[in-house]
Amino acid sequence: MTARVIDGKAVAREVRAEVARGVEQLLAAGGTAPGLATVLVGDDPASEVYVRNKRRLSVEAGMVDQHRHLPGDVDQATAQDLLDELAADPAVSGILLQLPTPKHLDSDALVLRIPAERDVDGLTTLNAGLLAQGRPGLRPCTPAGVMRLLDAYDVELAGAEAVVVGRSALVGKPMAQLLLGRNATVTTAHSRTKDVAEVCRRADVLVVAAGIPGLIGADAVKPGATVIDVGIHRGEDGLVGDVRYDEVAEVAGLLTPVPGGVGPMTIAMLLANTLTAAKAQQGLGD
Length: 286
Ligand code: NAP
Description:
alpha/beta; 15% strand
């Protein structure tokens, strides 16, 4: 079997076009353009690239760029003050603190300065709690992007065996909850799981977010399964994921590439969350 490749770039383009139309409709309804405040602390080159792309694509979707850059040696109180200022600014619909922040800062405490209704990364305890309870809220962008990819390829979730590898607050945990919310039977594997490959072989839908290059090979994949690779690693020959693409492609039914799979979806869902937040704040929500 040779897997069908999931085209994350194409689905992300569709989502961004939908968001751009949504922004136009918001303006036509008498609203104001959503403002996205990306907050970058320091000069980490990878974070700079991520933030630049988020800013560029938000402007392309008709949003207002409210970016802020703080020096790498900023103290906690100053960073907190900036987030409080953004939280009170009516022109700011969404706030994204680019992670990781420099080690001397308490990033958890900084995230908690972001009001839940502007938390477009879906990382505050309130939004995490709403997700855990299955109630509406802003969802973390990467797992939300995976759900959108699964839907775009009509992957059956109700009653499916889903395995998520990884349990971070950013990806694994919300991913498992979103799949559960769609009635999949969900198992989470992590670094203490005794036999990760055996657990993964149960999966009709396997989402891998372990942060270990090439962790998952063909021996961990049920024939015909849908395999979503969230991992991103910069290798000698470019970007690679947590899944050994070439060998898994021989077994899986559907598979995301790296790059061009989950990565583009993360920014697209950030824009979707920012539009949702703006509409709700302006009383023009769905
Ligand atoms: P993380 O915080 O490091 O979490 C990794 C998770 O994987 C942990 O729960 C860990 O288990 C588990 N794990 C580690 N080694 C394992 C092993 N050998 N077997 C099974 N589970 C293992 O990472 P993250 O933030 O969730 O990100 C995961 C990956 O996704 C990274 O490569 C990251 O770069 C990528 N990522 C991509 C996007 C995107 O837009 N495509 C967005 C976010 C993240 P324990 O909890 O037991 O330690």
